[in-house]
Here is the input.
Amino acid sequence: GPLGEQLHLAKRLGEELMDRGNGQPDVIVADVHATAELLAYSRAEIDSLGDRFHRSNLLLYYDEPNMGIHLDDRTLLVCKKIMWDAPHTTVLASATIEPWGKLPNWWKGRCEPAQRCVITQEPYDLPTSKLHVWDQEAKTVTPLSPLHLFKSFGEFSNAIACDERLRILLLRHLTSQQGTELLSSGSSKAKAAKKEKGGDWMALHGELKSVREALESEITELSSKRFDQLREKWTGRPRPAATLREMCSKSGVTMIATVDSRGTAMQLAGMENEEKWNESIHRLKARMREADRLNKLSEKEEKRRAKDEEEEAKQGLSVEGGKAQIALSTGLSISAEEAETVDDNTLVMLSRGVTYSRAEGEEGLVKRLFQQTLLHVPEKAMFKKQPPIHTLVVDYSSIYGTDCQGVDVIILLDDLGRLLTYEDHLQFLGRLRRDGTAIYTSLRNLRAATLGALAASEAEAKEKQMLYEAVESSLIDSLVDGRPPAKFVESLLISAKAEGRGARDVAEPLLLSMLNLSLRVPHGSMKDGDALRNANVECANDKEFLVRFKTLLTAMPKVVKYFFTLHLMSQKAALDGMVRHCFKHAPVASTFAHLVKFLYDVDALDEDVILAWHGSAEGKKELEGLATKLKAFVEWLQEEEDDDDDDDDD
Here is the structure.
């Protein structure tokens, strides 16, 4: 029922059962949806200051509020609801949330008078991570210094001058030797700091914060010449690494982040070697049969012991807790009952020291062993001995707050890496303990993880271009082959997936591809492969451009409708992309209203999206011309909407 009824019921039951809180909890642990509902109830229904749930009596501790809001519109919406109804005392707990002044206004709730207090920690004490890039084609992994993240000294100097936090974060990626070289050959200020602290970086590892503070000024004052010298000196040598397994830790725990955690875990465990995999299944099956035999013997013994207590004391069985255990590997045993709860492939995966975690769907045994591995704390005397489970494969749900003292290697695969924000990347790097290794499968994602906004815009533009090229190529192939709508859609989905994108991302590049083809390909050649790929015939007038576009749209109305109607955000992105195209190509600008109507007629653009864009464009000088062109169509839509309302009233 409604949350208010639940709270009243909990209070009544608490009073009846005389529980410690008398039905009035001191702490409520809730997911974001229940939190939003509780805060909305407090704001709308409770006016009495004496009520325990009045907003002035609540303290909201919102853990990792920025997690996933860029990946899922529903998560963003519920986050906004929570902040809109946030109580007077609210704590946003995150190591990676933007500074208060840079946050969008919706983070600040109803902007009621408030005193803001920030509890933070400067990132001097963050664990050290040595950066590496894995080149899958060359089958090598190469260490990178912080200086190699930048394309030039100009980019480096501009970045550290504008972003204080960035230059502090870069210090965490210096090796001991690199830090010592900076202190030894740097400015007099850095040398004085070294002398005062009593030695070099390697002698001061217990004083990590002090050393990094001394190095910060040296990084800031680095000259172009010194930058080039150190960059050349710190160039790492690539080492062979053909597979993921070769990059995993040999002494600690490896954490690998990807979209498909189970599939990657199976790959790491060696499932591709079918012969050896089947041999492992046979061995485990034999152990399961033996365990079943021992358990049956154990049951018989239990019956005998029940008859004669004196005889029970004299007998002993080599089983644990009366149940036989199946040894998956050294130090890792499970019960026969647990073995029956998972499939054969999962058992082999676990026997090879690999487990996984995902947002939903993992088996109970897999989850238990994953959690057990998180508790592993390596002892110095046994530092080189790996735990039975030594490889953790995770998806996005484990990037925030999954801590394991044993992790000394983290690997981020490209399929997930390209979806992450700078804050997500920082959280993933935080899964690494001090002096560990961070391996990325592309320099692009490594720059995004370490340089933030500096690399984000560049990467986003490049990714959009790659997606556009992939979609246009698939579009041309489908037109030439005359593929039916289902195959057409499938082809475009494959292209998007290859670029790490989903179906909702296709609408914008699909529309831009159609516009570009209409600008350069005659309408009679829209199925000619050579013309679609190479023709560059300008339109004689606006009418010809519209004929070309209509020819394309008529060839695939169901395909366009499919991708546009997956989500309103897909339509908004496509419409915004067409607006940007208007500033580059005159025919698109002059026929803007016609193009919008064409898309509306095939049910690709919703009238709410059109009306919302027109409303937001009014008053903006740069969009005034387009808004004027669309005005007549917008008025017609509004009239149609009014007529529908009148019909409903009748």
Residues 193-199, 201-206, 309-319 have pLDDT under 50 and may be disordered. The radius of gyration is 31 Å. Residues 148 and 232 are 9 Å apart (CA to CA). The longest strand covers residues 129-135.
